[in-house]
Design a protein that fits this description.
Layout: H1 17-29, H2 33-50, H3 60-71, H4 87-91, H5 110-122, H6 127-130, E1 138-148, E2 153-158, E3 170-174, E4 177-181, E5 183-188, E6 193-198, H7 204-208, E7 214-218, E8 242-245, E9 249-258, E10 265-269, E11 275-279, E12 285-289, E13 294-297, H8 301-305
Parallel strand pairs: 8-13
Antiparallel strand pairs: 1-2, 1-7, 2-6, 3-4, 3-7, 5-6, 8-9, 9-10, 10-11, 12-13
Amino acid sequence: MLTYNTGKPRLILPEYGRNIQQMVDHCLTITDREERTACAHSIVSAMLKLFPKIREQENYMQKLWDHLAIMSGFGLDIDYPVEIIHADPQESRPDRVPYSGHHIRYRHYGKDVELMVARALEMPVGPEKTLMIREEEITLAGHFNKPHGIKGEISATLDIDTDLEDVRCIVMEVEGIFVPFFITGVRPKTADTCLITIEGIDSDQKARRFATMPFYILNEDAPALELDPEEGFYASDLIGFTVIDSANGRIGTITDVNDMTDNVLFILTSDDGYEILLPVADEFILGIDVTTRIVETSYPSEILQLNK
């Protein structure tokens, strides 16, 4: 009857295969020491033929005899030509690494961001807390891509024409709070991307938590819009503006424009992170305030329902 490998004893070193393991098991049953030693030499020769490139390694014979000892469970009593390893190092385990028992609610943001949010929530009521960054005070500047290297740099794509070396900080939304992060270095990468180093972010693990997140800059650091309402606007001019509807209130922030279809669409990101598509049409736009970066609209409820 056919016996599957899953029903056979586990191989100690699977790379050598079951035939070599069976040869080792047979060698253990030989009672004569000289014959057993000769058998062991034959097994090592067979192992060498299986992996001829091992000759390129330093002390390759030492490695083969060590593997033979391991496959025998260190029970092969022969005259070894080299000093083999012993069982103790193989069986010993490293000490358990102590991990912090601190619970992180959103692990992908990490402990540092959680502590910053907690500190902001603990601030007493007063001018310092009321003067925290509000959404109408910031402009969408771009989004992060992937970490670059291992020292905390992260690639960023810019959606506006600005020099991040001249801004006081970048801002990211963490659990509904706009938190400032301070830039310590900027390096150009491509025409519209750069490499950013953020204060306190000194490893790729810390930088990875910001991957794909949008980031903002303060309105006073944003480039001035040279828009003349009398001359009209391009839809792309309104990227970064907040859309407020007369009947439904705040809808979201314009993050992009889709002009690949017959009807041009605003692409918005709502406060809860959902993508919203709205047609760009004069009949739905009541007004545009360049100073506050707000687009006032009056969309029919049927259009808004299509995004739910």
